[in-house]
Structures are given as structure tokens and as C-alpha cells.
Design brief:
The chain is an all-alpha fold and 300 residues long. It has a domain of 58 residues: Orthogonal Bundle (Arc Repressor Mutant, subunit A). It is built from 15 helices and two strands. Strands 1-2 form a two-stranded antiparallel sheet. It starts with 13 loop residues before the first helix and ends in a 6-residue tail after the last strand. The model has no long low-confidence stretch (mean pLDDT 92). The structure holds iron/sulfur cluster. Iron/sulfur cluster binds next to helix 9 and helix 12. Its cofactor is [4Fe-4S] cluster. It is an enzyme of class 3 (hydrolase). InterPro entries: DNA_glycosylase (IPR011257), HhH-GPD_domain (IPR003265), HhH_base_excis_C (IPR023170), HhH_motif (IPR000445), MIG/MutY (IPR044298). Pfam families: HHH, HhH-GPD. Keywords: 4Fe-4S, DNA damage, DNA repair, Glycosidase, Hydrolase, Iron, Iron-sulfur, Metal-binding.
């Protein structure tokens, strides 16, 4: 695919970026030698919307307990939801369990290595498919997350922020990848730069390893869009869903409606809405006698 980058773009030099990464990288357990493709996939599911510090302890316990897709699938969806704990956005846990089930049953317990097959698996989107192909299998594919989009917007396009995701993003980043086997290292370094130096709110340009940055050269022009508001959690439906799931996680058997009702008394309409959404998402199910349980624990 043709590069969409402007002709006069300052390039991101792979050697400089990777050299910086080699001494500046965080020691993250899923990046260590010997970590399997499945374990890398699990980390990518967890990291989609949750910070590294919260993911790390859960991931370590998780891969020790369930090192393969088949062990995860055999655990059952409810146990997986319990182990997901407070990582948030629990639909990811259910999708991860579904993904494990498909890989165990249809792919001989081996995570596929091509992007198209990965994209066909439950819960795997454009980013995760390419992250697994790149970081687990060393393929030269563009891995584009929010951090990468921001670094490219600034260093290459001279913009404060990346704007909305677009179909151009993949081609943009692919044009930056080195042609040789160093592409995966370049990709992880680019992500690390966005996560630790070229951050959304306070880029640390003084320690940035990129000698050329279009945004810096232009004098840091302000972004066009409105400033992003921090997502609040307290009082949201997400918080109520979390409270209801906490009750069910803590119980080995289905619970009465009254036990769920006391988990959120501030707004009963909101509580009902949250419970309905958990039922619709398939995270919670109702037993024949009207009690509630985690998915897979409601009986026939
Ligand atoms: S110089 Fe600053 S804005 Fe440019 S890529 Fe580096 S950290 Fe980001």
C-alpha cells in the first residue's frame, strides 16, 4: 500500500528509537523471553482499557493458573470472570474465555499466527490481531494503538493529537516500519515512547530520543479538537455493574434479587438498568427459580 506520509516528513529513525528502547523499556512480564503467544494474547486483552500497574499482578496469577487456551476454556466462564477481578470492562473476560474455547477446539490449542485468522476469533480486533502477530510471532505488521497514533501525529504530521481513528492509520505506521526483521522491536519501541515519554497530557520532549519532531519544530501548535475529559467512574453504570458482579463473584451459588438490591441503593432505576445490561451481555444469568448467577452458573 502506498505511504500516505508527506514527502517532507521527518522520519522516525528505527535505530535511534530501538537504542533508546533497549535501555529505557519497562520490565513488563509479558515481554520476557519464553512467554507464549497465548500469554501475550491474554496481556493484550487485559491492557486494552486497563493500566499496566493493575494488569501486571492479575496477569501473573492468570498465566500461572491457566497457561494455555485449553486450560482457560476448561475453567469455565464464571471462574474466568472471578479471576478478572477489578480489571474492569468484564465483557473482555467473557470474550477471552470464548476466544480460548475456539482456539482449543479449532486450532489445536495454538494461537493462530496470521492476522486474518486472528481477526476471526472472539474479542480480537485490528489492534490485538496485529499485536499478537507482531509480538508473539515476529511479523512485520503495523501495530497501532492510541499511543502510536499520538506519536505519529506529533513527530510525523506535526499535530498535537491524532484525532479520530481512521483507515489511514495502518498505512501510516506501515510506512515507518523497517523492512528487515527489526520491525517488531521498532513497533514495541514506538508504543513505549507513546506510553512513557510522548504522553497525551505532558510529553517529555527533553528526554525524547527522536531528533526530529514536526510538532516540536512547529512550536507545538494547539490541537483542533476539544480537550478530552477524563472518564469518571464514581456513580456511573459501570460502577453499579461492578458492584453487582462483586456480589455474584463472592457467591458459589446463585443469589436472590434482594442480595443484589443492597449492593446499590442510591438509585434503584440505575441498579435495574445495570442488572439488565449484565443479563443482555451474558455476564449474568437467571435461574429457573428467579435467582441470579455468573454466566455458566445458573443451571438449566
Ligand atoms: S519531541 Fe515531544 S512531542 Fe515530539 S515525539 Fe518526542 S515527546 Fe513527542
Amino acid at each position: 500500500m502506498a505511504a500516505i506520509l508527506p514527502e517532507t516528513r521527518p522520519m522516525i529513525d528505527p535505530d535511534q528509537l530501538v537504542q533508546w528502547y533497549e535501555h529505557a523499556q519497562r520490565d513488563l512480564p509479558w515481554r520476557r523471553p519464553g512467554v507464549s503467544a497465548w500469554q501475550i494474547l491474554v496481556s493484550e486483552f487485559m491492557l486494552q482499557q486497563t493500566p499496566v500497574a493493575r494488569v501486571e499482578p492479575i496477569w501473573l496469577t492468570w498465566v500461572d493458573r491457566w497457561p494455555t487456551p485449553s486450560t482457560t476454556a476448561a475453567a469455565g466462564a464464571a471462574e474466568v470472570l472471578r479471576a478478572w477481578g477489578k480489571l474492569g470492562y468484564p465483557r473482555r473476560a467473557k470474550r477471552l474465555h470464548e476466544c480460548a474455547t475456539v482456539i482449543a477446539a479449532e486450532h489445536d490449542d495454538v494461537v493462530p499466527d496470521d492476522v486474518d485468522t486472528l481477526l476471526s476469533l472472539p474479542g480480537i480486533g485490528a489492534y490485538t490481531a496485529r499485536a499478537v502477530a507482531c509480538f508473539a510471532y515476529g511479523q512485520r505488521v503495523p501495530v497501532v494503538d492510541t499511543n502510536v497514533r499520538r506519536v505519529v501525529a506529533r513527530a510525523v504530521h506535526g499535530l498535537a493529537d491524532a484525532g479520530s481513528p481512521s483507515s489511514r492509520d495502518l498505512a501510516d505506521v506501515e510506512a515507518l516500519l523497517p523492512e528487515d526483521s527489526g520491525a517488531p522491536q521498532f513497533s514495541v519501541a514506538l508504543m513505549e515512547l507513546g506510553a512513557t515519554v510522548c504522553t497525551a497530557r505532558a510529553p517529555r520532549c527533553g528526554v525524547c530520543p527522536l531528533p526530529l519532531c514536526a510538532w516540536r519544530s512547529r512550536g507545538f501548535p494547539a490541537g483542533a479538537g476539544p480537550a478530552k475529559r477524563t472518564q469518571k467512574y464514581a456513580g456511573t453504570d459501570r460502577q453499579v455493574r461492578g458492584r453487582l458482579l462483586d456480589v455474584l463473584r463472592a457467591s458459589a451459588s446463585p443469589v436472590d434479587r434482594a442480595e443484589l438490591d443492597v449492593a446499590w441503593t442510591t438509585d434503584t432505576a440505575q441498579r435495574d438498568r445495570a442488572l439488565d445490561s449484565l443479563l443482555i451481555d451474558g455476564l449474568v444469568e437467571q435461574t429457573a427459580d428467579g435467582r441470579f448467577a455468573l454466566c455458566g452458573e445458573g443451571g438449566d
